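Handout, page 2. Input:
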Amino acid sequence: MLSALRGKAAVLVTVLAVLCVPGCDSSPSEEGEAPQPRPSAPYRGNLGYALPDSPFTREGTVVTATCSMGARYVGVEVQAWDPERWRVRERRIFNVPTDAAFSNYSDVKAVNSPLVDLCRSHPDSSSPYAVDDLEYVAPRVRALFDLAFTRMAVVLRDPDGRTSHAGFVEAEANFDDIVRLGEAAGDDEQNAVMAPDGRSVWFTYTTPAGEHRIGSRSVEEDHRLSDEGPATGHDLPLAVSGKPPRAVQANTVRLAPGGRRLTATAPRVFGHVFDTWNSSGPLTRAPARTATLLDGCVGTVGWIGDDRVLCRVRSGAFRTMNARTGRAEGPTVTVVQENEGMTAEGLLVSPDGKRFIASVHPPDDRYGQWENRQDDFRAVSTSGEGEATDISDGSLTNGTLFLEWW
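Output:
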C-alpha cells in the first residue's frame, strides 16, 4: 500500500473533506468467516475520497468482474477476493437491461462502451475499440464502476436505432430499475463511465452541430447535461478521476499512486507517461512535450510506486520501467515458456508493487475455443523471483477481468 507518510496525508484529507460514496453500509463477509476489521483502502490517485467500509474496498482485496449471458439474461458479477488464499469474500450482481449496449450486432446502432468489451464471450465477437489487448481492456472496464463498485455506467439504445443515452444501474437492482439520464430524441451519448464517487456519469456526445464533446449528468436531481470539454469522437474511451472529477479520453489510463502522473496512449501521440492536468479532454500532442516514452512497452500493466511502471514488452515478457527515463530496470519476467505455445497479458499490479496478475491464453484468442473455455490466471512476482501462483476458481472464466487490487 502507500507509504505511512502518504497514509497519514490521506487520513488528513479524509478528516477535512469526508465524502461517502453510494452503498456506505457494510456488506456481509464470506459465509462462515468473521468480519475482517481491515481499514478501507485509500484509492490511488483519488485520495480526496473516503471509501465506505465493505469487502470491495478493504486493504488486501482484489476485485474482478465477469459478464454472464443467457437467453433472457445479462448480468455482471463483481467479486471481492482474498489475494493470499484466492477465495471469494463477497459477490455483487449488476443486472443489465435488454436496451443496454452490451453487444454490437447487425440492425442496431453500434455503440462504443467498455461494457461491450466486458461482455464479449466468443472469439468472433469484436471490441468496439481499435485495440483489445487486456492491458487496454482492464482499465477501461474499471472505469465503468465507481470506486466502491456500487454503481455501473451503461449506454442505452432507443428503439429508433439512432439514439443512445448514458445511464447507470445499481448493484443488486432489478432489471427495470435502470436509470436513464438523457431523454432527448437523437441523443448520441457513448463511452459512459462513472465518476469516482458514483454521483455522476460521464460520456462522449455529439452536439446538434456535429461537434464531439465530453459531458456528464448527475445521477440525482434533474440529470441536466453538463459540458466538460472537447472530445475526439467516440473512438477512444474515457477515464474519470480526481476531486473534483476530471476526464481524460485515452487508452491505458492508470494513475500513479500520488495522482500527479498517469499512463496513457492515443493514436499519433508520443509517450506513455504524462503529467495530469486540471481539465477534461482528450490526450493530445500538447502534454506529450513532457511525456516519457517507455522503451519497448506495448502495454502498461500498472504502477510500482510513483516512479516505475510494469510493462509488457515486445518479446511477450514483462519489464519494470523507470517512469522518468523510460529505461528498463531489473530482470525480465517471463510468464510463459516457449514450449507452452501461449501468450500472457497483464491485468493488475499489487499495491506494494511486488506481484502482478497475468492472463494466459492462446495467441490472439483471449477466450480459447468456445467448446472448451479454460481460465488460466497467474499471480507473478514483478522481480521474477519465486514460482507463479495459479489462480483457480469455478467462477472464473477467460472473460473475467481483474480490475482492482487494494
